[in-house]
Amino acid sequence: MKLIHLTDTHLVAPDKRLYGLDPRARLAAAVADINLHHGDAQGVIISGDLTDRGEPAAFQALREVLEELSMPYFLGMGNHDARETLQAAFPELPRDDGGFVQYAHAFGPDADDCVLVMLDSAVAGEHGGLLCESRLAWLDACLVAHHDRRILLALHHPPMALGIRYMDDIRLQNPQALHEVIQRHGNVEHLLFGHVHRPASGVWRGLSFSTLPGVNHQVGLDLVSAADCLAGSHEPPAYGVLMIGEEQVVNHLHLYMDDSRRYFFHDTLEAAQSLEALDELIALQRDERIPTREREPLSNTLQAAEAAK
Ligand SMILES: [Fe+2]
Ligand SMILES: [Fe+2]
Questions:
Q1: How far is the CA of 121 from the centre of ligand 2 (A)?
Q2: For residue 197, which of 91, 167, 219, 251 is within the disulfide window of CB 3.0 to 4.6 Å?
Q3: pLDDT tens across 20-38, in order?
Q4: Is the separation of the CB atoms in 51 and 23 below 8 Å?
Q5: CATH of 2-254, one of 3.90.550.10, 3.30.200.20, 3.60.21.10, 2.60.120.260
């Protein structure tokens, strides 16, 4: 099965910009790209910081853009969001008995299917995250209820330090408590989070994890500066394509706004000793294989070439 991971959309009120960029336009580009290339995905997981300042107009803009998705979406709370305002804009969004945006969604009965468990790690007025006793108890019961399923666990805050000190200070503040619940059940297969606005993956206490660039602005890879300094960056946005098979979970990072050259690794490529020559080759490949199409991203081009065989 296939799922899409998006994070940190940081939408703002209409006509506003954020760090000089338009988060709504960038999210709309992601939605269009996902619909075009991953219409077979069973859902889009958005792991918090849905808005930058939690205004109703920003949540409304989010809803308008996400309504264009051809598949369901699953929202999580971030430190930049406002729980009540989120709920007002998305009244269908499930909450646990404590009012936290926590829910489970089972994707089907097959061996390569899984259950998404969304956690709410946000604390009003704080940038760091926390899972209080009530939220941890809900997770514990949820993992019992789905004891025989593969769990994909999503939350906004990373439970581990990633080496960017400013972000490390505002990570999940009680990782040990989360670990104890996860370890008690042993069915969590992969951890997804946002908040850090960078691609990163690894293993935390035996559990694999991955995170992504944000949809709007990024955090630079600065592993040196002190905790009072955070490097912003305009590196390109991305989404993750999670391919969940019986034996593995693969997370492809896709830079959906990248417009660099795309070409087939064709024999004649050896002749392309300059970018100008490569452009000529690309034009030839386009003419030979997909004469009626304008240049499109690689996956479309490859599908057209396959269909023409
Ligand atoms: Fe964020
Ligand atoms: Fe955040």
A1: 10
A2: 219
A3: 999 999 999 999 999 999 9
A4: no
A5: 3.60.21.10
Q: Please give the residue that has the higher pLDDT: either 237 or 295.
A: 237
C-alpha 193/C-alpha 210 separation (Å) is 7
Q: What residues does CATH 3.60.21.10 cover in the chain?
A: 2-254
Distance from Cα 51 to the centre of ligand 2, integer Å: 10
Q: Which ligand lies nearest the alpha carbon of 158?
A: 2
Per-residue pLDDT tens over the stretch 168-202: 999 999 999 999 999 999 999 999 999 999 999 99
Which ligand gives the minimal distance to the CA of 18? 1
Q: What is the structure's pLDDT at 291?
A: 41
Whole-number pLDDT of residue 244? 95
Q: Who surrounds ion ligand 1 at CB < 5 A?
A: 8, 49
Residue 308 pLDDT: 52
Alpha-carbon distance 2 to 241, whole Å? 7
Gap from CA of 158 to ligand 2 centroid (Å): 10
Between 42 and 299, the higher pLDDT residue: 42
Which pLDDT score is estimated for 172? 98
| Average model confidence (pLDDT) across the chain | 91
Ligand 1 centroid–CA 293 distance in Å is 38
The ligand that comes nearest to the alpha carbon of residue 214 is 1
What distance in angstroms lies between residue 260's CA and the mean position of ligand 2's atoms? 30
